[in-house]
Design brief:
Length: about 260
C-alpha cells in the first residue's frame, strides 16, 4: 500500500505533542511543522520549522501530503492584529497551499470558543449541536468562526474534504469542573482524527470534539456519524478536582476575559 503523509501544523503544542505518538502508524509519515523547536524526528517523521503565515514554507510543507491537520496558531485570547494575522491569515495561507499542492483532506482546529456565549442546557438533553451558528466569546473565538468559514469556502469552491473540530478541552486530564463537561481525552482526540482521516465522501463538517463525559453538554451525534466512538469520560477524575461551578455558557471564563488581552490557557 502507498505511504500516507500527514502534515500536522502546530505540532510542538499541547495537542500536537499528545497526537505525535498516537497518530504514528506503519505506512504513515507524519510531517511535523511548527515555529517552535520540535524534538528531533523519529522513524516515520519529518520536521519543518516555519510559520503557517509564510506561503513559501507552506507550499513546501504541503508537497506530497495526503492529509493536513491544522493545529498551529494562537490558542487563547490575544491582540486583534495578531489573532487576525496568525489564526485567520495563517489558515487561509494553509488552505491555499493545500489546494495548490492537491491536498484533498483537511482537518481544522476550531474551538468551543467559536460558540462560547451559547448557554449550557439551552439546546435540550442531547446537548448543543455541532452546527450551531457562531457566538464567539473573544477575538480568539471570532478567529475560530473564521477558520470554520474558510474551511467551508475551500470545500464549496474546490471540493476539498474539510472537517472543523470544535475542540472542548484537550489536555492529559481535566483540570476543573467545567472540563468535566468539555474534556477531550488525548486518546479520543486521536480516535476522532483517525475518523476524520478515513471519511469516504468529500464533505464539509463541523464536529464537536469532546469525550463521552457523564456531564457532557454538547452533541456527539455528528462526530459519531463519521465513525467516532469515545472510550473516555472525564468523570473518573471528578473526585480529584477542587469543587467549582461549570459556568452558564460554553466558553466559561473566556466569556469574561478582557478582549484582546492574553489570558491563561
Ligand atoms: P498550543 O498553544 O499548545 O499549540 C499551538 C502551536 O502552534 C504551538 O506549538 C505554537 O508554537 C504553534 N504556532 C503558533 N503560531 C504559529 C505560526 N505562526 N506558525 C506555526 N506554528 C505556530 O495549543 P494547543 O492546545 O496545542 O491547541 C492546538 C490547536 O487546537 C489550536 O489551534 C487551538 O486553538 C485549538 N484548540 C485547543 C484546545 C485545547 O484544549 N488544547 C481547545 C480548543 C481548540
Ligand atoms: C481553547 O480553545 C484553548 O485553546 C485551550 O487552551 C483551552 O482554553 C480550551 O479552549 C478550553 O476552553 O478549555
Amino acid at each position: 500500500m502507498a505511504e500516507q503523509r500527514v502534515l500536522i501544523t502546530g505540532a510542538a503544542g499541547i495537542v500536537g505533542t499528545l497526537m505525535r505518538p498516537r497518530l504514528a502508524r506503519s505506512g504513515r509519515v507524519l510531517r511535523l511543522l511548527d515555529l517552535a523547536p520540535l524534538r528531533p524526528s523519529g522513524p516515520g517523521e519529518e520536521i519543518v520549522t516555519g510559520s503557517v503565515t509564510d506561503p513559501r514554507i507552506m507550499a513546501e510543507a504541503c508537497r506530497d501530503v495526503d492529509a493536513l491537520i491544522h493545529l498551529g496558531g494562537i490558542s487563547r485570547e490575544d491582540g486583534w492584529e495578531r489573532i487576525v494575522e496568525v489564526n485567520i491569515g495563517g489558515t487561509q495561507t494553509v488552505l491555499e497551499a493545500a489546494r495548490v499542492a492537491g491536498v484533498s483532506r483537511v482537518v481544522l482546529a476550531s474551538s468551543n470558543h467559536a460558540v462560547g456565549f451559547r448557554r449550557i442546557g439551552a439546546a435540550g438533553p442531547e446537548g448543543l449541536p455541532s452546527d450551531s451558528s457562531p457566538r464567539p466569546d473573544t477575538y480568539y473565538g471570532v478567529s475560530k468562526a473564521a477558520v470554520e468559514a474558510l474551511g467551508s469556502l475551500y470545500h464549496s469552491r474546490f471540493g476539498m474534504d474539510v472537517t472543523c473540530l470544535r475542540i472542548g478541552s484537550c489536555f492529559e486530564r481535566p483540570a476543573d469542573t467545567r472540563q468535566l463537561s468539555l474534556w477531550l481525552s488525548p486518546d479520543d482526540c486521536a480516535r476522532l482524527l483517525e475518523a476524520c482521516l478515513a471519511t469516504s465522501e468529500p464533505n464539509y463538517r463541523v464536529l464537536w470534539a469532546v469525550s463521552a463525559n457523564t456531564r457532557g453538554v454538547v452533541s456527539l451525534r455528528a462526530a459519531e456519524a463519521i465513525g467516532y466512538r469515545s472510550h473516555d469520560d472525564a468523570e473518573r477524575y471528578a473526585a480529584e478536582l477542587p469543587p467549582g461551578e461549570p459556568g452558564e455558557c460554553i466558553g466559561g471564563a473566556f466569556c469574561e476575559t478582557p478582549l484582546g488581552q492574553r489570558n491563561p490557557l
